């Protein structure tokens, strides 16, 4: 923007200066020519008394002396045809002046000045001189150079002033852009210092108000999520007491483990809602091998109860990924939960975790009927669920610098591929 404003100022300055300096330069040339012509005419007219009254010898001496002083050729044409001074042929201007008319005419050598002298007994004499072109343009080149330098100087001054004015506009706009990018990167404490014209200060104030309003809305939303999650602790406590009161130790242990996992998920949700970092994404990293192994072990108990065969293929760890352990655990639970929710009992499934081109790839494949046709969107499901499970997995994948891929298996069923990138430094 500064460059465009400077270019605009330069263009306007050049046009304005051209409109003024070109006529001024022509005027300087005309004035110089007229000044040389007036000087030559005045010097020539000083000969009129001598030419009108003196004898030819006196006229010759006077003409030669004036020609030597002025540096211009001077000739006197007497009525009898005698030419005194510079020997030149009679020109049309001289012939016209012999009839009693003084004039100035342009010639190949410069500007010709002829003066008719009347009062001689033998007729009208004519005094002729020529102003060379070097005298007609004396000082014009220097004046033009001065005008050109003045024009360049004025353009440069205009550019400096335009740049200063542009800086007062560009700097607040740049700050507005930087703060908007910081807000987009979750730096909600970023604010703009109002500066520049009134319109930009108003925009800065509006952006600061918007940032503050976003902070308030997010704080209220997180508090509501935290409060809702906290309310789940009471029924969880009841479930724990009910599990501990079971007579079968195995059932009590299994239910207690499930309640512990649910309580950890609720605690993680509260912590994430209330104490989320204000950094770029607020996420850490974890060992994918440990998290996936722990969650598969948890679901293996339910798989055994429903007659499902679980095939687990874990690459040797650690496998660091750029997503927090609770979010990765939630994504794995969502994928495995879909297998249990949308395939009949006894349907086998496979969980594979491996390195793949600098990323970690988690594959969950089942031999069920496959996914319904159509895209899967958050909150929408074609299989009677909430439609949030795959969205949780997809958000975890994107948070970890990867993506979620869904496709059909070679022998039917569904293959969910969760790609996760390495932790960010």
TrEMBL record:
Annotated Gene Ontology cellular component terms: plasma membrane
Full protein name: histidine kinase
Keywords, ordered alphabetically: ATP-binding, Cell membrane, Kinase, Membrane, Nucleotide-binding, Phosphoprotein, Transferase, Transmembrane, Transmembrane helix, Two-component regulatory system
PANTHER family in UniProt: SENSOR PROTEIN CREC
InterPro entries: 2C_sensor_his_kinase (IPR050980), HAMP_dom (IPR003660), HATPase_C_sf (IPR036890), HATPase_dom (IPR003594), His_kinase_dom (IPR005467), HisK_dim/P_dom (IPR003661), HisK_dim/P_sf (IPR036097)
Positions of the HAMP domain: 167-219
Annotated localization: Cell membrane
Pfam families attached to this UniProt entry: HAMP (PF00672), HATPase_c (PF02518), HisKA (PF00512)
Membrane-spanning parts: 143-162
EC number: 2.7.13.3
Catalytic activity: ATP + protein L-histidine = ADP + protein N-phospho-L-histidine
Stretches assigned to the Histidine kinase domain: 227-424
Residues covered by region (Disordered): 366-385
